Amino acid sequence: MRRFDEMIKEKFGIEEAGKETCEKCGETYTLYHTPKGTVGACKPCYDKEFIQSLDLPTKDEYRRSKVTGVISELERVTSDLVDATVNNYQPKDKTQVKAKEIAKNYIMNFDKEHSLVLSGNPGLGKTHLAYAIAKGVRKMRDDDGNHYTTLFIKSTDLLQKIKATYHRESTLSEDRILNLIDQVDLLVLDDVGSEYIKKNDDGSETWATDILYKVADMRLGKALVVTTNYNESSLVEKFGNNGPRVIDRLLDNAERHRLEGESFRKNRF
Ligand SMILES: [Zn+2]
To answer: Residue 24 Cα, ligand 1 centroid: separation in angstroms?
Structure first.
């Protein structure tokens, strides 16, 4: 192949006017005398600028945009939760004061590895704190300056969403959902234990516990926040044969905190 400068000389009859060192990358490039003046350009930098001018997402940005796309398809937040933050959680008991502090620290020190389990009776604001954590972590950035990706989902909704992918018209597939579960920086699984678990006659694992096991297994070594109205032993019992291994994984590398007190919801009735 002929060199570019030979071609330009032959075709346009223009001569080299010397060499120039690129200010940006330090490469040397050739200058030419042309009717429009002395011109030349650093090829690597020119190419780079061209690619930048296309404004294409990087591979990482593309991956993240796919992740956030699936998150927005999955995340459904009830109106009472939308404005929930750690700061506007109002503790009524010292275990709740502690829970608020734990939630704040969890967000500030988010490391993609540590997990948290908030347990306690209904109506103590576990879901409020869990959603506030998902929102709070989402505002934080990793070492590369990218916002963390987080998914907040009720355990029952996750199962229902996966079940819905089995219909032919579904825009999501089970694989895409599980892929997100695997990739998201933080998964917040709300109200674990509220699922309807249909036990087979022989006590073997059902579809629901099988999926929960898959999810818990995928999150091993990755950040997971769980809320539950149950305690450990009643959860194990609820999930049948899969119970011990599901719970083992849910509790792996997790700080556990139990909230006490009277339900916030009591006064509404
Ligand atoms: Zn250059």
So the answer is: 5
